[in-house]
Amino acid sequence: MDEHDGGDPGVLRVDDPWQDAAGAGLWVPDQAAPVMARTAADVEPDDRSAVYLEVQRSAAFQEVRESYRRFVLPVVAGFLGWYLLYVVAAISAPALMARRVTGELNVAMVAGLAQFASTFLLTWAYARHARLRRDRAALDLRWTLATRTGQERVR
Question: Cys-Cys crosslink for 26: which of 21, 31, 114, 141, Cβ 3.0 to 4.6 Å?
Answer without folding.
Answer: 21
